Amino acid sequence: MADGKRRLAREDWVDAALAAIAEGGVAAVAVEPLAVRLGTTKGSFYWHFANRAALLDAALARWEERTTTAVVDEIVNATEEPADQLRTLIVRVIEAAERDRVGPALLAAVGQPVVASAIDRVTRARVGLIVTVFTRLGFPLAEARSRALLAYSAYLGHAQLAHSTDGVLPDTVGGRRAYLRDVIGVLTAGASDS
To answer: What Å distances lie between residue 180 and 94, 106, 117, 144, CA to CA?
Structure first.
């Protein structure tokens, strides 16, 4: 382009918004600072989005797809035994919780209706997936729901610890394996298929 600014795709803005949320929370999603960050003009933003709210909606949808929808699809369609599905799910989400800085930032902004709506969808989908896995393990539905809530609460606590308190979670390969074994053991105690 003649002015030296590169033409950006919609996805570039969405990725920049997610990076801003991870670094500074939902309030950090502002058009002008994002344009500076991307080395472009606000005009590029308005080519792709009507306003900040539209960008925030797109960023939340991308986060939901990456962290929830794709995982749900993978686990629901897995051909593994239920106990292996649970292990795969736990390992995947624990590793993701340690990398995902957007989730904790969104939880801090749950008072905003658009964020609350996204968190509600994600939480319901995640808990629903865990219920499905526990019912596949042979637990009655009520117990599967109870264990799913326990598992999801443990996940949220793990994510909080991973982002707030260095050195609390195991950081060696052996320590992580023992930790994951303990988590799975607690969650599946009494399972007919574990």
So the answer is: 9, 26, 31, 19
The closest alpha carbon to 149, from 124, 185, 181, belongs to 124
What are the structure tokens assigned to 37, written together? 């960050």
Give long-range contacts, CB 8 A cutoff, 24+ apart: 177-181: 180/87, 180/90, 180/91, 180/94
Look up residue 26 and give its DSSP letter.
G
Residue 179: inside a domain = yes
Q: What's the per-residue H, E or C state across 87-135? A: HHHHHHHHHHHHHCCHHHHHHHCCCCHHHHHHHHHHHHHHHHHHHHHHH
The answer to whether residue 94 is domain-embedded is yes
Domain that holds residue 181: 59-188
CATH of the domain at 90: 1.10.357.10
Q: How many domains are contained in the chain?
A: 1
For 141-182, the pLDDT digits (tens) are 999 999 999 999 988 888 888 888 888 888 888 888 888 888
Place of tokens 């795969």: 88
